[in-house]
Amino acid sequence: MRGVPWLELTILAPLCGALLGLVLQRAVAVLALVSSLSTAVASAGVAVLVARHGTIRRSVGAWELPLGIQLRADGLAALVLVAFAVVGVFITAYAMVHFEPGSRAARSFFPLWLFAWTGLDALLLSSDVFNLYVTLELTTLTSVGLVATGGDPAALSSALRYLLFAMAGSLLYLLGVALLYGAHGVLDLDLLGAVVTRGPVTWGALALITCGLALKAPLFPLHGWLPAAYASAPVPVSALLSGVVGKCSLYVLVRIWLGVFGVPLGRAPAVLIGVLGAAGVLWASIVACRQQRLKLLVAYSSIAQLGTIFLVFPLMGRAAFAGGAYLVISHACAAAAMFIAAGTIEQVVGHDEIDRLDGLAHRLPLTFVAFALAGVSAMGMPPSGGFVAKWLLVRTAFELHEWWWAAVILIGGLLSAAYVFRVLRGAFVPAPITETIRRSRASDLLALGLALLALALGLAPDLPLALAAQGAPS
Amino acid sequence: MTAENVLPVGVLLSSLVPALIIFLLPEQRHGTRTALNLFAAVTKLVLTAVIGWGVVHHRRYETRVRFLPGADLVLHADPFSLLFVTLSAVLWLATTIYAVGYLEGSPQRSRFFGFFSLCVASTMGIALAGNLLTFFIFYEMLTLSTYPLVVHRGTPESLHAGDVYLAYTMTGAALLFAGTASLYALAGSVEFVAGGSVGPLVAGHRGALMLIFFALVAGLGVKAALFPLHGWLPLAMVAPAPVSALLHAVAVVKAGAFGITRVVYDVYGVRVAEELGVMRPLAFVAAATVVFGSVMALAQRDLKRRLAYSTVSQVSLIVLGVAIVGTVSTIGGVVHLVHQGLMKITLFFAAGNLAEKLHVTRVDQMRGVGRRMPLTMLAFTIGALGMIGVPPIAGFVTKWYLGIGAIEAGASWAIAILAASTALNAAYFLPLLRDAWFEPAETQGGILAEEATLSLVLPTVFTATLSIAAGALAASGVSPLAWAKLIATREYQP
Q: For B137-192, how does the pLDDT look when each residue is reduced to its tens digit (9 = 90+)?
């Protein structure tokens, strides 16, 4: 078990799939499925290793630090890796249902998605600020490409907007990295953490890096590009962006914060991030309540959930950390399930206007069940992964005697109940036609599977939390 | 894995598993569904009886699963949980039979019975919860599983009632969550133990404990329909009759009252709560609700709405008994949990029969119905007289203990509340009974015995009989009163 290079495989498996997919275009979907499953197996291997032996480090090509590139998997990385891999498999399977086999969209989607996944896994396992930059770029640029696979003018213009925001963010981030490298001559997170001191360079780097990542994450009020990008992209793209890829900038920020800035700079900047996150929770939830279209509702809901995750910065501590990680993985399942359900509804009735969905549940029962179960997690109601995350965060807030963070989370939960039930209440209106529509059940089953995963995370949080605690800062 | 570890989960699963199977059954499999429901209800009764026997013989039943740091999932059976479990199990069986008859031929029965069983499973979890977090989890599962029942008919009216129900209960959930999480943050872990467990914290965290108490009680008070948090209950009347019966007698309202009792006795402990000075405000709120609910009931013209406000008032008698410090009043409050359930479910069954068979939904349509539906109206009469407090029906026992308890605890003002409640109960029930029995029928049609079908009448008569039995046999060893005495003595042990 230890002999197998699981870490490298989590990056190589999607990479090979992507490259082969470019060449063997006819078999691209099957290739994608095979490489997704292999990635999932490799990710599970990493998780088992980390659970047994703690943090794992590997030097790529046997070059040692500070020159070489090191891959590192601690509990957080392993947990997120596995969760994303599972959701990734579901999304690949859904894309096989969604895109017509051999179509242009399918041929561009699968390789791009696997490239994005390559970048994502490499990012999760990176341990220095420059590699984080490179992998983040790979993930972002392929995401922009994915948004554009819709092909229509709306998709192209929102992809372009996304690109501009992302580029600005990257530039700021890279400047910050340059500052750090210029001052200290190292890039590795641990080495940097050891030498960074309080001073103008560190503050400058912190500001640049945080702003850059906040643009890409996005953190309120820099989210302008997100709703249009998520809502105009093809459904599999929306699902993977909001569920999986959209979390990577936040992940980088947490990594750098924990490794480098957290200790020397004190709490003030963390509180600022928390305030913006809180504003994002409240604002995005209210806007979500007012949406007319289901996909936009889910997109705004994603911004609100991201905002909640940003609250781990002011609450920083072991339990809050676990809560944030838990929210990341349960939202990955729930958001993907909600987007797939929304996509199914749009596909069947030709629109996704919330006020016109009355009685539809009698014809698409499974779709609505999936949406409802995912909604339970989004609301943070028990039993669900969302509830466990909310519990950990709220409890930490009270332990720190900072009840206002708890209030934000609870109000956010109430608002999300409002928008989730706005969709669900129509399900109870009696319909003139009660036969279910005859069509492939695959997309419903995939959405349901993801929603059940979000639910299951609320039933047995013991194991994932133990994994996340491996090598976590105390 | 011993029987002691498995049985509490068994009680929970005996309605959770049927719920899941029912969701998967096709809509047309009515026979299978009914058989499954009845089998599950009987299984639950048997399991409950076994646990009850064990608890009497000092066995400890507990299932503990690791869940979160400092917070296990715990199901356990103490006398108080058993009281609630037994009530729910018995009334579930009755309501299931009733609902099968009531919904004969209506659409979406699969969804209905699925959520119905889920609702009961959540109630079992609430009853058996061994700590505050477990309680919270099942309490909110109850919120979610009741919503589809409230909006079951899908009319604009019921959807509106559902919206209001959610607005109230979700806000309550947020308060309860805040209270629970902050208590865990303060105490590390909050197990339910007789006499409470937060005592050692009082010295350092007086203010925080008081705030948390009010957050918890306000959160629970929404479901218990404490004034001014009762607004959702009268609206929820649009739900089908078996749902109203379940909501009022067993599941939702009762879960709130049960939760408040747990918080007062097994989280804070009655002495600590008294010392914090939170019992008196709670008693006043309960007393205000008793009077308010009765006055509002008097003003209602719709039969089910009148019954709904009557619930608001009667459930607060439980809280009142709990909030007056003293063994006897505690007995009165705790036993009313059962008594109110038996009597109120009888009233709702009867009201459902009247609406179903004679389309009587308003209080001014009751003339002569006694002769047309004698069994139903006999049951209704027993329930109504019991609510007023006429011996030997169960309600009398409650009021007797509450009255003596109030005097004993030096809270004689509560006597005035009880008297007012009795007078108002009589004022809104007796005219109905007079109309029903002594006025001639409005219509010329069939004069005699137009009783509803057997599956509607049988549960109605059954619960009416239980209401009398609980009162008449109160002195026997297996009566709700005997259990309530056992519970109260445990809570007041030094």
A: 999 999 999 999 999 988 999 999 999 999 999 999 999 999 999 999 998 889 99
List B191's β-bridge partners, or say none.
B131
Q: List b or e across A184-220, with b for residues whose CB sees 16 or more CB atoms inside 10 angstroms.
A: bebbbbebbbeebeeeeebeebbebbbbbbbbbbbbb
What is the rounded distance in angstroms from the CA atom of residue B298 to the CA atom of residue A155?
62
Chain B's closest residue to A424, CA to CA, is: B148
Distance to chain A for B337, nearest Cα, Å? 26
Residues from chain B contacting residue A398 (CB–CB below 8 Å): 181-182, 184-186
The angle at the Cα of A74, spanning A72 to A77, to the nearest 5 degrees, equals 85
Question: Residue B154 is nearest to which of A411, A430, A461, comparing CB atoms?
Answer: A430
For A319, the token pair is 């339990």
Domain boundaries, chain B: 1-276, 278-494
Q: Chain A: nearest CA to B152, how far in angstroms?
A: 7
In this structure, the strands spanning A69-73 and A56-60 are antiparallel
Q: Which of residues 281-340 of A touch B (CB under 8 A)?
A: 319
Q: What letter would DSSP give residue A429?
A: S
**Complex ipTM more than 0.85, yes or no:** yes
Domain ranges of chain A: 1-125, 127-266, 278-295+305-474
Per DSSP, the three-state class of B108 is coil
- Tell how far CA A471 is from the center of its chain: 22
Judge whether A340 and A352 are in contact, CB under 8 Å: no
Task: Find residue B62's DSSP bridge partners.
Answer: B76
CB A309 within 8 A of CB A250: yes
Contact B101, B460 (CB under 8 A): no
CB-nearest to A398 from B133, B154, B182 is B182
Contacts of A381 in chain B (CB under 8 A): 140, 143-144, 173
Look at residue B442 in the predicted model and tell me its pLDDT: 65
Residue A292 burial class via C-beta count within 10 angstroms: exposed 0-12, middle 13-18, buried 19 and up: exposed
How does pLDDT run across B388-429, given as a tens digit for each residue? 999 889 999 999 999 999 999 888 899 999 999 999 999 999
Which tens digit of pLDDT belongs to each residue from B341-398? 999 999 999 999 998 888 888 988 888 888 888 899 999 999 999 999 998 899 999 9
List, for residues A124-152, the tens digit of each pLDDT value.
999 888 999 999 999 999 999 999 988 88
